[in-house]
C-alpha cells in the first residue's frame, strides 16, 4: 500500500479500540495512530465529534472514508488484507458463521454485558436484542468453543481477535463465569505476539496520559 492508503486508527488505550489495534498488527497493515485521552475528554472535543458524533473509539479513516463501529471495522480490515487469512472468502462455507459471530458480539453480547454490569433488567424477552439472559449468551459462545480452539475450528479469524479481547475484559471485571474453556480461549488469543505488543503499547500510552492528568 502507498502512504496515501495508510490506515488512521483513532485510539484510546484500554478501550474497545485496543482490539482494532491488535487486528491491525495481526494483519500487518500500514497504520498510524491518532491517540486520544478519553479520561481528559478529548474524544468529546469538536474536532473528533465532527468525525464521529458519538465520540466513540475505535474509528478508522482510509482512502478518505471514515469507518466507525467496531464490527464494521473488523469486517472492513480483515477483507482488505485477505493475504493474512483472517477472513473467510465470500465463497468459503465459513463466511456465514464468521459473520454470525462478529455480529453476535455487537447485537447480543455487548447489550447483555452492559445490562449485567449495570444490574439492569433485560426487559421483555420479545424486545430484548439478545432475547434471553446474559448467561445464555455466554453459554452459547462457550458451547461453540468447547471442542475446538477457535470459533471457526482450527483456524483463527478476525472474529477471534474481537472475542478474545472482549472476553478478557469481561473476565477482569468479574462478569463472566469460571470456565476452563473460557480461560484457555482468552489465553490463546491474548497471548499472541500482536496482542502482547499492543498491551505494551497501551500501558505506555496510559501511563503518559495519567501523567498529563496529574
Offer a concise description of the structure:
With 214 residues, the chain is of the alpha+beta class. The protein has helices spanning 17-27, 46-49, 70-80, 95-117, 134-145, 158-172, 180-190, 193-213, and strands spanning 7-11, 31-35, 59-62, 65-68. The chain has two domains: 3-85, Glutaredoxin, CATH 3.40.30.10; 95-193, Glutathione S-transferase Yfyf (Class Pi), Chain A, domain 2, CATH 1.20.1050.
Run of helices and strands? EHEHEEHHHHHH
Going by helix content, strand content and strand pairing, the class is: alpha+beta
CATH topological fold name of the largest domain: Glutathione S-transferase Yfyf (Class Pi), Chain A, domain 2
Number of helices: 8
Instruction: Report the biggest beta sheet as strand number plus sense, adding barrel if it closes.
Output: 4 strands, mixed
Distance between the termini: 40 Å
Q: Kindly give the count of domains.
A: 2
Strand content: 5-15%
Tell me the number of strands. 4
Low-pLDDT runs of 5+ residues are none
**Average pLDDT rating:** 95
Strands across the major sheet, in which order?
Answer: 2-1-3-4
Would you state the CATH class of the largest domain?
Answer: Mainly Alpha
Helical content stands at 40-55%
Radius of gyration: 17 Å
